[in-house]
Fold these 3 entries.
Entry 1:
Amino acid sequence: MVQKKTTKSSKAAPKKTNSHKAKIIYDQSQRKKDYFFPVLLLVVALIIIGFVSNGTFFLGGFSHKQTIPEGNQTVLVTVNSEPIYQSELDEYWDQIPTDIKLQLTKEDLLEEFIQERLLLQEADKKGISVTDTEVDQYITSQLSSAGLTLEQFQTILSQQGTSLDRMRDIYQRQLKLAKLFEEQSKDLDATDEEVQTYYTEHKTEFFRPEQVTVRHILIPVNDNINDSTAQERVAELEASLDAADNENFCDLVSNYSGDPGSINNCGEYTFSKGEMVQEFEDAGFDMDIGERRTVKTSFGYHIMIKDAVIPAGYLSLEDDIGGQTLDQAIRQLLAQEKAKAIYDAYIKDLKEKSTIIYEAANDPREDTKNVVQDSGNVTIDNQDVVVEIN
């Protein structure tokens, strides 16, 4: 197994993320990850353009019911006479993973509840609806993308304390919001000029240090395989490679490698200095192209073949950065920025037309005395913070 020097995980680690580098380069592997389970990550506000997997807003999985929910029936906020209960906030807060809670407060979550409530109210006013067939098609497409069967999905939902019926309700609301914004988001495509301008202004962020591409077969040394047994297996594989002039390398990866992170792509890694365990990295940069070498790391023995050297330099718009070109990634980023601007403006407009009443005694924010809305008059008394915007 090949990993960064700082990780001890049993799975191959992704490339190191540098905060000063352009986010679009390093986040490609995360794009199709957890967004299919909005009961945990809910739905990104940018669903309006289909970039559900790359936002920061927690929106779309909240309750939109006229009935009083079970649990704490304390009203936190009333949005156009429609209450948001403490139990709703608590329920979703409890289902959010700990690592996400580090980036989110209950104040943030309540704001997302308010925004979703405003949007769903507007969708209802416009007569927007979503059929069961549309929900089924959406679930089917997402299951296909995630590589899951319906039965596997139901098992995961059960483990998370929810059900398929509950998720169908969540997806129905997501799709309703997507329809609400459909007419607002027809012109999101970035022009060639916009792409070139972004590339020029951020070019220093697209510098790529020298990289090497190697393939490896990992024979692990662990509680189940001692060092002597591992060396015997290495010797057998090296003899087999010699006899086949390395042509059977991929077959041996599939049959013998103990690195799940590379077993499906012939053991291949492309990396810069500072990303892999030291012995593996040193060999990768020291070897000649086509050379085979066996090295030992804390994970075990690695039978390595060096395939290529990628010189340091600036990425071009045509370069691949994880399944798409840099040009495509920039276009996606610019479209997301346009969509977010549309979303923010739409929410601001809805707030300007709405009456939002906060119950001060139960407001999860630290200081309700300093509440400032986008516009309108704010009145504070001992009980409520009332925002009436005309």
Entry 2:
Amino acid sequence: MEDVFSGALDLVRQREQGALATVVAGKGSLPMSKRAKMLVRPDGSITGTVGGGCLEAEVWAEARRVMETGKAVFQTFTLTAETAEEEGLTCGGSVEILIEPLIPRWPGEILEPIAELRRGGRTALLATVLDGEDPAAGGLKMLFFRDGSTTGSLGDTTFDTAAAEAAARHRQFADDLIEIFRPFPEGPRILLESIAPDPVLFLFGGGHISLALARIAKMAGFRVVVIDDRPAFANRERFPEADETLVMEMEGALSRLKINRRSYIVAVTRGHQHDKTVIRQAAKIDAAYVGMIGSRRKIKLMWKELEAEGIGRERLEAIHAPVGLSIGADTPEEIAVAIMAEIIQTRRKTMGKQVKVYGTSTCPMCQRVKSFLKEKGVEFENIDLAIDRERIQEMKDLSGQSGVPVTVVDGEVVVGFDRPRLEKALGGE
């Protein structure tokens, strides 16, 4: 799946026109998610999507006008029940979409840094002026990096400062962040969104299941890395969709790879002992997902062996084994679909969570909860009750407790530092 930012960078470098559409907000049952993007090229071809159907056709037409005028628009598109029925859709509602012409100054200031960030697996926050007196203000952007540095400008130092303060409130740089705020009553609105790299699927084993899984994962927007100790099973000819094919021994392989909370690991090697070697390593690191193929009997025996080696039961139970959703899959292609479905389910469960932590800065257990959430890459509202005492009653009403910490995940209350319950609330099994 081509990246809209890379496509935009190519167009600007070639001094060609183009328009970038971004879904900012929506109401009702709509065929897209917030943060969906679509790049429209001069020849009318597109990369990405804002939902398809009649809505996308309207956005496409507006994008063509934006290319002609060179002026950004921030527009509400309405998909009525009647229109949806005519198109054979079951959705309806309204959506706000920003459509911007590609600006010549973007490459050095915005698009090149974004491309470099995504290649390096790093994140940033992007601020964009949505409206204002200047009809071309949509070209004003500012990029905030984790180290505190910035590039670009919103056209006014007061806006830059306000955006920097907003970015500082989101230190965790959650992958799904999107926020609109108006820093001054008479000023323009500003869109703040996260720029994150694609998730990475590490496939251990280059057999039939991996062949199908690599293709599906690439279509779903994942970077794909295939690892096998046999050159004939890890090469670009066999896996043309893969971003990397690595020939290496399974023992010690994970220590040579960059594994983080955007990493998804699947062990589908040619044998039980190779799977075990991968899982032994994977159980000791914090990836977003670890899955292994195998019968329940094989898994039960392996877990006993790994427990005897000192790996905790809690870590083993977090592994998806047998891997994949239970849909009766039989062929390698069907098994690949089941695995990818489970990966997507896991990924989406951990995105968009509203998390609050009630505690104090002097509470050791509160610090453990916050450290745990940070390790998971979860953004949360930190409510220091020693400072914000008015919210003590709010915490008591939610939890029925007076002690801290209290963590609330989408309305589910977890008292103290209860790791299994936190894992489950955040989307674990």
Entry 3:
Amino acid sequence: MTKEEVMQAFEQTQNSFKQKEQEIASWKNQVNLLEQKMDGIVNAFQAMYDGLDLPADLDEETENQLQNRKDGIRLSVKSASRLERKWKDIQWPEDFAENFVTPEELVNEIKANKEQHSDKPKNSEQAETSTEQKQDEINTEPAAEVEKEETSEQKNQAGLAETERKSDIELVQEKAEINEKVLDGLTDFTNSLQKQFYSFFEKAVVPVIDGLYSGKKFSAEWISQLQEQNNEENERVIEWLDVYDRFIQEMTEFLETFNFHLYEPEEGALFDEETMEPIGVVENHEMEDEQVAEIVRFGLLSKQRDKEEPLLIRPAQVIVVKNREEQQEDTGEEQPNESGQ
């Protein structure tokens, strides 16, 4: 590599390091917010459940059904209370800056390197540099320090100057490589943290919503039965079952705070292997093959920074239409015509 390329590589590590510092600071804010919101979800769920009393004077069958619904909600509340335990504490790389070489540190390394190779000791005037001059030297770009070698007092000593020049360039390259290793470690850390974040929402948060939607779906079927029977308890049951929407709303807002969204394909949409997972097939002659007949479980999407397309974290589970073709068995006998002949 040329001197210019070496210096550019070192300067690029400085820019990348600033970006990584900002990225880690952003992650810290996200994790702090997550811990606060988890605590809020647990408290909200518990408060709603504590206030969830069954309507009075219900018939025995309706009361038992609602009690079953309440027991199911209790499990969702319990699952939400475990979120904080499922989230793993983050071991932040607090000392990563100590191993990173800054331009000021590189300037000092270059000076020390020059003094080590010089056979001419510094006189007293050179040793008594003013505070202002020292500050100027610290702020000097490393590239300028390398250039000094060609204009130094030892310029007439060509062989020694050439040795120093190569030594300094090698030193800059060495420090750039050290910085790149630090940056690689920070990249590994942020990638691992992102995977943990996605996994937590997929395997801990969304299952709470799955349970609530399952209960809501069962309740909707029950309400349809009550309406068909013209049950007098219908209105009070519907009002009580509205609690599912309140719990789901809390969890939906929790997801959206961190740019996650539930993905629900439309029934009748064509099956998409990129975003859906087939878990069964069904015959439905009112629909075409490969159409979605039923959504069993929502998918999960994450809106990515600076990207238009969201990232699929979990595919939606669906049941797909697959109709059998009716084929007339070939018996080898001549089939009768419409007149029966």
